[in-house]
Here is the input.
Amino acid sequence: MKKILIIEDDQKISMALSVRLKSKGYEVGCAFDGSQGVNLAVKNEPDLIILDISMPAGGGFLAAERLRNLANTANTPIVFITASKEPGLKEKARDLGAFAFLEKPFDARSLLAIIRRALGEPVPAGT
Here is the structure.
């Protein structure tokens, strides 16, 4: 079973994503700030990380930098999500090796298709 770590400070978003992903057969862990997320990623070695950009205790970009510098998470695909409309975020995410970048609110089916592609799984037609 593929493991996904959601690092998102909005617990409603995190729980909604968790329920949806578990229903698709993924093992899901949640962290509510960047520091906790890095610690969980090191401990659990997820196959994919969904990472919010704006969070307390080290934002998503700081967490991504830390993850990229650790041997067991350096190559883990990261899908960045954000509600921020600040210019340059997509480029910064790309510079940190993002697999994908989504603005909130995002379409859950699109996110699932991105996750499947990142994990090397087949993506059903029409998604």
Q: What stands out?
A: The radius of gyration is 13 Å. The longest strand covers residues 3-7. The CA atoms of residues 81 and 102 lie 5 Å apart.
